[in-house]
UniProtKB/TrEMBL annotation:
It comes from Panicum virgatum (Blackwell switchgrass). This is Uncharacterized protein.
Length: 108
């Protein structure tokens, strides 16, 4: 415990409050935090904290991906609609050419 108190002072940071030092030591050496809870010191599980952080990071990372995927989907839909229009115009031109060709061949 003494080393934790002096570590922060050696680093140039303000010394850690003694309650925080006790909390850190007890949480590392004991799986039961009843004492800390009874005296009103909030104890957070490092596993819970890291899993929560991990979940939040995944949500933040997923959000831009969803937005990008939505943008790509909208762009793809627009391109598909343009392709359908282009395809229909080509079909109309081919029908006209075939009609002209069939009229030209049956005339002689």
């Amino acid at each position: 415990m003494e080393s934790l108190c002096t570590e922060s002072a050696d680093d140039g940071q303000p010394p850690m409050p003694s309650a925080q030092v006790v909390s850190n030591v007890l949480s590392q050496s004991s799986s039961s935090n009843t004492f800390l809870k009874n005296i009103g010191i909030a104890v957070t599980s490092k596993k819970l904290e890291t899993s929560t952080k991990k979940a939040l990071k995944e949500q933040l990372a997923a959000k831009p991906k969803c937005e990008v995927q939505d943008q790509v989907l909208v762009k793809t839909q627009k391109e598909f609609e343009e392709f359908k229009k282009y395809h229909e115009e080509n079909n109309q031109l081919l029908r006209r050419i075939l009609m002209l060709n069939s009229v030209g061949n049956s005339s002689p």
